[in-house]
Amino acid sequence: AFVQKKEERDMVDRLKEEQIRRKKREDRLEKIRHNVQLKYAAKRKRSEEDETKRLLQLSKEVISEGDGVEVLEQLDHNEEELILAEYESDDEKKVVSGLEDDDDLEEEHVTKIYYCSRTHSQLSQFVREVQKSPFGKDTRLVSLGSRQNLCVNEEVRRLGALQLINDRCMEMLEEQS
């Protein structure tokens, strides 16, 4: 009886730990989803900073050469107005996102299913069926080999809708025959 109760307590403890890990993981995923816009803003800021650095370098060249006519001719009309004196803010070096703090969370064991098929329609059908199933809400899945993801023809990729892509692809295959 003692051994059985100890096993039950151990099992309850393991389940509680697993539930805590799962909750932390879900919180982390939710935080990542909400920070997508923040990431894009940070990327735009980095590209703007790169452009500013380039203009600062050009400014230094203009100042150091004394003869800035050649450098000014390389600039667009709009860029001439942007040549700046060097300025660096204290805030420029701050990290925008705090996602790196969660690196200590360990990845829990997740069951993974790999479904392979020769036809794109079967892949699409499998994805739809999983999403409609009772497990659809809790299941994450990625279609790795669809025409939508792997098509190299710009004209076909611009169609957007999977059915239109499949139809156009089939037409092109028939034209080759």
UniProtKB/TrEMBL annotation:
Q: GO cellular-component terms in the record?
A: nucleus
The RAD3-like helicase DEAD domain is annotated at 115-175
A Pfam family reported for this protein in Swiss-Prot or TrEMBL: DEAD_2
Biological process, per Gene Ontology: establishment of sister chromatid cohesion
Q: Which GO terms describe its molecular function?
A: ATP binding; DNA binding; DNA helicase activity
Q: Which domain of life is it from?
A: Eukaryota
Specify the protein name: DEAD/H-box helicase 11
The upper taxonomy is: Eukaryota, Metazoa, Chordata, Craniata, Vertebrata
